[in-house]
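Priority: medium. Attachment 1 of 2:
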């Protein structure tokens, strides 16, 4: 199945069922490893951004022209998807955005944003380049600049398809502002955190855990927190703290300090945009 089609269909669903598969898992106590096919396959998988922009006119040219100019100006490797972009409404968008709105940040979207989705008249999809791990933060900051450019050109709603995350326009503008400040301050840890807040989705549910999706877009493994660890907001705070620890201290010290394990037993197939080739940090129950 076409990869963008997979992403679009996945964003319609509120939950994706857990599919157990063989994988490598590293436990901090034993240090034992078992390497299986998933571990071999992961090395050839690289993340990429897929961005969805909704327009207010039955004419793609305002958004597509702005996207083409952004690609020429700074977004090398990005491209417009001609197959799925359309100069007409997509009646699945209200349902898709309803699933994808960020439910962590207060006031991440408003009734006006919902109305803009319902009333949209065109859809533009943009594909980012495949990213090596060392380039993920840089490219994610470029993706934020891309979002800024298209909002300025008249996009009325924006969604990151790679993780299934949507913010209202005011929240996108705030993330764009924070990203620009982090770049100006030459603070790569802040850039990574802002890229994670912009393009990752959390929390989603798998049996026994709440999970992140999309941390690979800034070069990090996903984080699974036991659902008994607290409220959803408390669990999200733990997820974010673990991600910050990995970014600041490194993976192995974080695994040891948290008594966590690294697994490659993913909910997602290796050819899906949500598959994380850097694995899953699973906190103990």
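Attachment 2 of 2:
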């Amino acid at each position: 199945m076409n990869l963008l089609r997979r992403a679009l269909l996945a964003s319609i669903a509120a939950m994706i069922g857990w599919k157990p598969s063989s994988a490598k898992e590293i436990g901090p106590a034993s240090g034992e490893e078992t390497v299986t096919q998933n571990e071999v396959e992961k090395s050839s998988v690289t993340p990429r951004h897929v961005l969805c922009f909704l327009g207010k006119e039955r004419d793609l040219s305002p958004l597509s022209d702005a996207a083409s100019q952004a690609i020429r100006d700074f977004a090398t490797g990005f491209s417009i998807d001609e197959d799925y972009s359309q100069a007409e409404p997509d009646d699945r968008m209200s349902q898709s955005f309803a699933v994808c709105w960020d439910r962590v940040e207060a006031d991440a979207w408003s009734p006006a944003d919902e109305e803009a989705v319902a009333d949209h008249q065109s859809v533009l999809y943009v594909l980012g380049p495949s990213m090596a791990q060392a380039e993920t933060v840089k490219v994610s900051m470029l993706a934020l600049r891309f979002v800024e450019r298209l909002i300025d050109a008249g996009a009325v709603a924006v969604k990151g398809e790679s993780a299934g995350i949507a913010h209202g326009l005011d929240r996108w503008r705030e993330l764009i502002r924070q990203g620009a400040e982090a770049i100006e301050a030459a603070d790569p840890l802040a850039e990574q955190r802002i890229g994670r807040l912009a393009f990752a989705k959390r929390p989603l549910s798998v049996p026994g855990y709440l999970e992140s999706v999309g941390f690979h877009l800034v070069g990090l493994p996903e984080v699974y927190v036991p659902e008994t660890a607290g409220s959803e907001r408390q669990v999200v705070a733990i997820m974010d703290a673990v991600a910050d620890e990995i970014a600041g201290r490194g993976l192995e010290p974080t695994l040891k300090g948290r008594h966590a394990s690294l697994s490659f037993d993913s909910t997602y197939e290796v050819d899906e945009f949500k598959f994380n080739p850097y694995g899953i940090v699973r906190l103990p129950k």
